[in-house]
DNA sequence: GCTTCTCTAGGCC
DNA sequence: GGCCTAGAGAAGC
């Protein structure tokens, strides 16, 4: 399927890959292995539990992440998370314009954000015109919401979250006074733009609108500055926005992030490297981190 | 190592 | 004020 992306800010036609069917196998693999992380199961055991052949499992992972199942699963262990945190991130000084991706972030999803005024937020989305739609993506069935100013929300539909209806209620419920209409065709274009690394280009930044309280928006902006393939902690985020003791409040704000994946709340974890939580399920958080790990280290992907 | 306890900040009603 | 958190660190096992 070939998709033409119509956002004037982003522009080029691109092939949609979105191997959404592979995600189900990846998800089951992650669930199985994280249940028994003490004793890492072999490929054969995993394939049996996921009810696919070993060769198929291998092929799915290579197609989906560009890594062997073994390499992928190593990338989502707690040890690896600790190593990510150990690297540390340079603190940005207060004057630094966070959120806007610089040219140095070659592999990242380039984003230009706009924050919704507190006034507009108080009115619970009154006056907002939201279009939404569902499309398949690499992390399952994806709900996208947008306004004429850019992308406003991303959520996921699965049985744990009440299917399409539950996901929609969750997302639209954040702006109950907004008017909304559905457009699945354009939603497919958004999903292709967001989840296709080839479309991440500095000269065609993704426009997003952050709609939240001042505090929430500050946390989300800071999250946008965490590079792909790296991780941070809630405590570190708190220190970076100038409230070093507010780790818990930061966690709450991160949990309310409306634009999942784009605002990389999956790159935030507890101080021990434990994943601690994710609005759309810990398995999905783990999958996103592993997927990004593969993307950030293409060299490691090809090594046996 | 994991679990429990205590002290938290901030948002929201 | 009171009530929630996708927290953190110490203490105990």
How would you describe the overall organization of this protein?
- The two termini are 32 Å apart.
- 41% of the residues lie in helices and 15% in strands.
- The protein has helices at residues 20-35, 43-50, 54-64, 69-75, 78-87, 118-122, 163-172, 184-195, 214-224, 234-240, 247-255, 282-296, 298-302; strands at 2-3, 14-15, 111-115, 129-137, 140-147, 150-157, 179-182, 206-210, 232-233, 268-269.
- Helix 1 (20-35) crosses helix 2 and helix 10 crosses helix 11 (247-255).
- The protein is an alpha/beta fold and 304 residues long.
- It has 13 helices and 10 strands.
- Residues 1-18, 89-107 and 300-304 have low confidence and may be disordered.
- It has one domain (1-304).
- The strands form 4 sheets. The chain has a 4-stranded mixed sheet. It has a two-stranded antiparallel ribbon with strand order 1-2. It has a two-stranded parallel sheet with strand order 3-8.
- A hairpin with a 2-residue loop joins strand 5 (140-147) and strand 6 (150-157).
- It binds a DNA duplex (13 and 13 nucleotides) through residues 213, 215-216, 233-235, 238, 243, 245-256, 265, 268-272, 275-279, 282, 285.
Average pLDDT rating: 83
State the order of secondary-structure elements, H for helix, E for strand: EEHHHHHEHEEEHEHEHEHHEHH
The 3D shape can be described as globular
Which structural class do you get from the secondary structure elements? alpha/beta
Q: Helical content, roughly?
A: 40-55%
Number of strands: 10
Spans of at least 5 consecutive residues with low confidence: 1-18, 89-107, 300-304
Strand content: 15-25%
Tally of helical segments: 13
N-end to C-end Cα span: 32 Å
Number of domains: 1
Strand arrangement in the largest pleated sheet: 6-5-4-7
Reported for the largest beta sheet, the result is: 4 strands, mixed
Radius of gyration: 19 Å
């Amino acid at each position: 399927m070939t998709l033409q992306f119509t956002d004037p800010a982003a522009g080029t036609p691109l092939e949609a890959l979105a191997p959404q069917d592979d995600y189900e196998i990846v998800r089951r693999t992650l669930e199985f292995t994280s249940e028994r992380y003490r004793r890492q199961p072999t490929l054969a055991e995993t394939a049996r539990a996921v009810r696919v052949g070993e060769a198929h499992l291998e092929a799915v992972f290579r197609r989906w992440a560009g890594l062997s199942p073994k390499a992928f699963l190593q990338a989502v262990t707690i040890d690896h998370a600790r190593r990510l945190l150990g690297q540390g991130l340079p603190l940005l000084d207060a004057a630094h314009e966070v959120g806007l991706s610089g040219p140095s972030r070659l592999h990242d999803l380039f984003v230009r954000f706009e924050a919704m005024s507190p006034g507009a937020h108080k009115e619970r989305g009154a006056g907002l015109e939201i279009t939404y739609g569902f499309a398949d993506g690499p992390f399952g069935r994806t709900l996208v919401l947008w306004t004429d100013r850019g992308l406003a929300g991303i959520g996921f539909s699965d049985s744990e979250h009440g299917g399409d209806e539950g996901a929609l209620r969750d997302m639209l419920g954040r702006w109950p006074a907004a008017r909304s209409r559905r457009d699945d065709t354009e939603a497919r274009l958004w999903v292709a733009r967001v989840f296709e690394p080839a479309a991440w280009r500095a000269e065609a930044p993704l426009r997003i609108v952050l709609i939240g309280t001042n505090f929430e928006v500050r946390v989300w902006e800071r999250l946008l500055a965490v590079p792909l393939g790296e991780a941070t902690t809630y405590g570190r985020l708190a220190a970076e926005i100038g409230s070093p003791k507010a780790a818990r409040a930061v966690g709450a704000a991160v949990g309310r992030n409306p634009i999942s994946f784009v605002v990389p709340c999956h790159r935030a974890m507890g101080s021990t490297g434990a994943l601690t939580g994710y609005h759309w399920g810990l398995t999905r958080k783990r999958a996103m981190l592993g997927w990004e790990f593969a993307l950030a280290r293409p060299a490691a992907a090809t090594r046996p």
